[in-house]
Design a protein that fits this description.
Elements lengths: L3 H37 L5 H27 L6 H15 L9 H18 L2 H29 L1
Length: about 150
Amino acid sequence: MEHYPFFLNFMKRYFPTFIAAIFVAKISCLLALFALLDNFFVSAPLADEAKFFAVCTVICIGVLVHSNFMVVRGRPAWVWVFAGLFVVCLLCVLPTIAYRPNRFVYAAGILFPLLGLLLLNSKRHREMRIQLVEIRRQRELIRQAFKASRRR
């Protein structure tokens, strides 16, 4: 329990940025899916649209959960998957301008992926990833020491 104050300070400093990136990613994915369904699948039956939306939502959530889990476990390269998701969301929304979408929804569809990329590139998020790598290294050293003492 001697590391409890460290944990609280860590969470106070980095959790808002971390969770904001997750929520912005969820909103970006939903806006991109709505833009795709509203503009490109107009003549598709409602049941097919619902299946497409459900499958895409599950895929987006799976990618988000796994990449965030790997970042939390101290693997900062997985943030590129997260960034790629933002880029895909942005690229899904951009071509819908030709179909004259609602201005607010279109602006939000562009704003949220860009905001997510900005959050991932923020100083605090980068510091958090460096701290998580250091925690992973400490965890590996503790495991190695435990295995070495167990063998004796």
